[in-house]
């Protein structure tokens, strides 16, 4: 009986020792990973964080796109109202960053002009924008003369804010107004869509194949490979417009517009990145989860929309 018990105890001891060793290994591994767990560097944490970030970014981006496309095809006035609201938010974010940089813009004057620029083409497509520019400059001049504490730098920032964030944005309204019907909406959607695809293609191509930095001191995540991927995406959208026969755009014109609009959209992106880096912020705001501020989402569109309008206008298409 005792021998049987001895055999049982003898055989159980190795099993218990093996289990203890496994437990010790697991505890040791857990201790080794504790620092990574606290800092969020575990593979599972990174995968979950990336997924959550992409879902948040995609959802907010989809809502932004749906509202924008809906207004574009609804008509000229809904487009102007939407662009006016977006320009006001972009200008507000620009002034916020300017104040962080030590400037004191007149937000009442600047934000009023930001609202008026996209609405002006609806009232008078030829002279509306010029009238708003004149009123903006007169208001800035009067403010500068009547307030001796105001510096010329504050005046410059006040005037530049709505010109940068709203006057250029108003070109979307001018493009939409070229044809009040469906084809005008499709053309405006194509211009905006080409910028969206530029951003998307640049992001995914750069993430997958990016090796050479495009502007490391301004935007470290941008790559030359992503830049060319973005240009290709822009050209594709313009070629689709040409294939559909929108506004009589030819294939040669589509390629040229795709290249130039793609380049200026990157310039707009880098310009805003330079502003943010100058004042030490990551995002211009937080109104769009996953994207930051509306200016972060629209920085490429500002330069690209005016470029597209000028190309279409001087190309005899508008």
What does the secondary structure layout of this molecule look like, with pairings?
Blueprint: H1 2-39, H2 43-74, H3 76-100, H4 107-123, H5 128-146, H6 152-167, H7 171-177, H8 182-209, E1 213-215, E2 219-223, H9 224-243, H10 251-279, H11 294-314
Antiparallel strand pairs: 1-2
Helix pairs in contact: 2-3, 2-8, 3-4, 3-6, 3-7, 4-5, 4-6, 4-7, 5-6, 7-8, 7-11, 8-9, 8-11, 9-10, 10-11
Describe the model.
This protein has 318 residues and is an all-alpha fold. The chain has one domain. It contains eleven helices and two strands; from the N terminus they run ααααααααββααα. The protein has a two-stranded antiparallel sheet. Helix 4 packs parallel to helix 6. The longest helix is centred in the first third of the chain and has 38 residues, at 2-39. It is globular.
Elements, N to C (H/E): HHHHHHHHEEHHH
Q: Kindly state the mean pLDDT as a whole number?
A: 87
Major β-sheet profile:
2 strands, antiparallel
The helix/strand class is mainly alpha
**Strand composition percent:** under 5%
Helix content: over 70%
